[in-house]
């Protein structure tokens, strides 16, 4: 498909051919949800934990007689049924990560890119560089294009001045092409790709 290429002043400076197999696939919300959940689960620290019977400080002596006290039978003070006892079946330190096939991950990436293109939320920049770091100048360009929340994806290596100009602006992320992922694409309203990023993504997803 033909797509306009613009500059930071919101002016068209040419066009580019986007692969339909990457930017023109059907929307599949189930695959998107599955991959986003996979990404978020991988980020979880898994450091939550409670003390079980063996972790609670206390004696192992039987707290009271087996019968005749009017209370339920107990063999140890640290049992879950006792005050200040251990927690039964509580969370333990573990990893929440699990496997997901490359085929599903690649499909979700194509769906996310296609969704942005279909909704008119995909923009291709001719150049993702800056002569010097300037948040003020970047914000002006941001407003000219009518962007409020955006993910910028550059080539293999980001321009330092461009990244420095954008990093202090709320709701703006800048990533290299190899760091582009489904969650960050979906969470921002607009996706802005450099021409180098388009080439790398198409090579990776075709």
Report on the structure:
The protein has 206 residues and is of the alpha/beta class. The protein has 2 domains: 153 residues, Ribosomal protein L4/L1 (Ribosomal Protein L4, Chain: A), CATH 3.40.1370.10; 41 residues, no CATH class. 34% of the residues lie in helices and 14% in strands. Strands 2-1-3-6-4-5 form a 6-stranded mixed beta sheet. The longest helix has 17 residues.
Summary of the model, kept short:
The protein has helices at 20-23, 29-43, 102-118, 135-144, 160-166, 182-187, 195-205; strands at residues 2-6, 12-17, 122-125, 150-153, 172-175, 190-194. The protein has 206 residues and is α/β, with parallel strands linked by helices.
Descriptors for this entry?
206 residues, alpha/beta, Ribosomal Protein L4, Chain: A, six-stranded mixed β-sheet, 7 helices, elongated
Describe the SSE topology.
Layout (H helix, E strand, L loop, with lengths): L1 E5 L5 E6 L2 H4 L5 H15 L58 H17 L3 E4 L9 H10 L5 E4 L6 H7 L5 E4 L6 H6 L2 E5 H11 L1
Parallel strand pairs: 1-3, 3-6, 4-5, 4-6
Antiparallel strand pairs: 1-2
Helix pairs in contact: 2-3, 4-5
């Amino acid at each position: 498909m033909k797509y306009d290429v613009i500059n930071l002043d919101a002016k068209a400076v040419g066009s580019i051919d986007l692969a339909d197999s990457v930017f023109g696939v059907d929307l599949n919300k189930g695959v998107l949800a599955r991959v986003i959940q996979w990404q978020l689960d991988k980020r979880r620290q898994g450091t939550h934990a409670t003390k079980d019977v063996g972790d609670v400080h206390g004696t192992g002596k039987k707290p009271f007689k087996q019968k005749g006290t009017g209370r339920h039978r107990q063999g140890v003070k640290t049992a879950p049924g006792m005050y200040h006892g251990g927690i039964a079946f509580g969370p333990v330190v573990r990893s929440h990560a699990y496997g997901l096939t490359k085929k599903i991950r690649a499909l979700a990436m194509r769906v996310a890119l296609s969704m942005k293109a279909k909704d008119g939320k995909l923009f291709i920049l001719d150049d993702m560089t800056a002569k010097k770091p300037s948040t003020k100048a970047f914000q002006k360009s941001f407003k000219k294009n009518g962007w409020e929340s955006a993910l910028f994806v550059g080539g293999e290596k980001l321009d330092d001045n461009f990244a420095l100009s954008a990093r202090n602006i709320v709701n703006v992320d800048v990533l290299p092409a190899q760091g582009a992922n489904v969650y960050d694409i979906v969470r921002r309203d607009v996706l802005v790709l450099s021409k180098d990023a388009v080439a790398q993504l198409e090579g990776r997803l075709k």
